[in-house]
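Example S7 (structure tokens).
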């Protein structure tokens, strides 16, 4: 008799239990997102037919089952979360996942990883003989700095295997840049403006304007530091790749991405601005 009563009591509690109610599913979903990050809610089969739209919450003994395209998750009524077949997390161990902004460098690193698998991605160093005359046919205005460009051609490549990048001052905190092909003397870029120069490598095809490593240190006082940070933040940091036109064989710069020059800068020089360095 007592055993029967206990059994009925357990069954009654389970049937009555508030965690069987799936109407407050938003809080359950939020708890799952905090534990495991974003969950894909819309999925399709191999033929493109939609299988599910939205994250679903179902009853589960002593908790709720959150069903998403990426799998199933159990949220127990005492606050812990478990991924079906995955890792168990106690309520006190659950920390929200902080998403970080995707920077140009992140995108570039992904692109570089893809290019590394290509058979023709390697940059070959051109050792001469270099062209003896500069070709201004693509950019006639570059003749305004022909002495500087001619010297760069004579000095040899420092970028992308066979190209020479040269720079000159155009005022206070102002530089301009040109790129010449040492194979044929052709100027392929001219007048690229910066305030803190450029970075590039002999064995790479990417050129970056106003790179973080060229930026000044923040001053000691908060007021001065804020002013410098604002002046840096208004500048663009541009990422270019030297690309060859398949049909004509002409080389040119392709702009890959643009971001504020303060990206990656304030995180380094942060203590005077009260920025938390994560």
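Recovered sequence:
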């Amino acid at each position: 008799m007592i055993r029967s009563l206990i059994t009925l009591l357990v069954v009654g509690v389970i049937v009555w239990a508030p965690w069987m109610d799936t109407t407050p599913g938003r809080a359950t979903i939020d708890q799952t997102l905090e534990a495991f990050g974003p969950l894909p809610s819309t999925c399709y089969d191999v033929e493109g037919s939609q299988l599910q739209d939205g994250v679903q919450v179902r009853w589960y003994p002593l908790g709720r089952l959150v069903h998403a395209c990426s799998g199933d998750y159990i949220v127990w009524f005492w606050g812990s979360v478990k991924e079906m077949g995955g890792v168990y997390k106690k309520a006190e161990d659950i920390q929200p996942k902080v998403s970080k902004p995707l920077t140009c460098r992140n995108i570039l690193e992904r692109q570089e990883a893809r290019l590394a698998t290509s058979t023709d991605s390697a940059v070959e160093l051109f050792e001469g003989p270099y062209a003896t005359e500069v070709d201004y046919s693509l950019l006639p205005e570059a003749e305004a700095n022909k002495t500087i460009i001619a010297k760069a051609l004579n000095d040899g490549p420092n970028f992308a295997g066979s190209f020479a990048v040269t720079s000159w001052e155009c005022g206070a905190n102002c530089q301009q840049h040109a790129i010449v092909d040492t194979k044929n003397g052709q100027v392929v870029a001219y007048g690229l403006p910066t305030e803190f120069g450029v970075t590039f490598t002999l064995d790479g095809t990417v050129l970056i304007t106003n790179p973080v490593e060229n930026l000044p240190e923040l001053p000691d006082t908060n007021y001065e530091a804020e002013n410098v940070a604002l002046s840096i933040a208004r500048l663009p940091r541009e990422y270019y790749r030297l690309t060859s036109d398949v049909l004509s064989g002409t080389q040119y710069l392709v702009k890959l991405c643009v971001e504020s020059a303060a990206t990656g800068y304030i995180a380094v020089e942060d203590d005077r601005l009260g920025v938390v360095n994560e």
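Notes on this example. Residues 2-93 form one domain.
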